[in-house]
Amino acid sequence: MSSKSKRSEELNIKEEPNLTVDILEDNENTEVDETSRGGQEGECDPILISSKNIPECKNEPEEPCCSNVSYINVPVVISQFKICLQLENSVRFCEPVVCIKASKKTLQLKECKLIPGTKKVFIRGVIKKVLEYASARCQSSKGTSGNIRYLTYLVPFECTTEISYINPPEIKANKEQKFIPLEYHFVCEDKGYFNQNIICEIVRYKINELMCREDVVPVENIKGQDCFYKMREKIVLNLHLRLMQNQVVCMNKGAN
Q: ∠ at Cα 99 (93, 103), nearest 5°?
């Protein structure tokens, strides 16, 4: 064997392992990189869970109230009424009060519910009052001094009343399930209706009150000035309410 062939064999033996190792290392690195990239991207990739075709169903026209007329869905007045409530409460101050300067009142209706199947309405709310009063602090030869303060509190009221209908509400009772036994199976019948809510709104209100001083006593270091720590209120509340419900109303097509 010549020296050239020996040299080439030696070179081939030495180069093949190096080339094989280099190729394997490149493949492994490539697979690891692709796997790591695929894991990161796979977390945000969208996945289609399911897909299906929805068939079309046939419908039959249905007149909501009557035929050959136009119809609209509008709020209808069920009842409008006025109630009168008489309230009495007492207020205690934490300092001697000389006089009440002003009294501001607002009405908040918390509940107004018509009981289905009856004409009874349950009403509940509060009167929010803000009193501005003058308190006595001290007295000198030149006169009496004090502070102008504010007091905010709530006067609750509650009652129930029986009303008369202008237009009766549309309330349909939902029937319970009925199982009809047959020879080898049961037939279930169930019906349901969606009833529109009855809305209650305040038309107007009027509050008349009388405030009476109690526990009137002279204050120390203040001569000739009687103050009070307690006050009793008598309130007459006139409340006008309206009940409404969305209903389908039929109209003549030729009517304006």
A: 80
- CB environment 6-45: b (16+ within 10 A), e (fewer): eeeeeeeeeeeeeeeeeeeeeeeeeeeeeeeeeeeeeeee
Cβ pair 186, 223 in contact under 8 A? no
- Angle at 87 (CA atoms; ends 84, 89), nearest 5 degrees: 165
Dihedrals φ, ψ of 9, to 5°? Answer: -60, -45
Tens-place pLDDT, residues 231-245: 999 999 999 999 999
Cα–Cα distance, 62 to 249 (Å, whole number): 15
**What are the helix (H) ranges across 43-188?**
none
Q: Which two tokens stand for residue 248?
A: 């389908």
* pTM flag (> 0.70): no
Q: List alpha helices for the chain, DSSP H.
A: 3-42
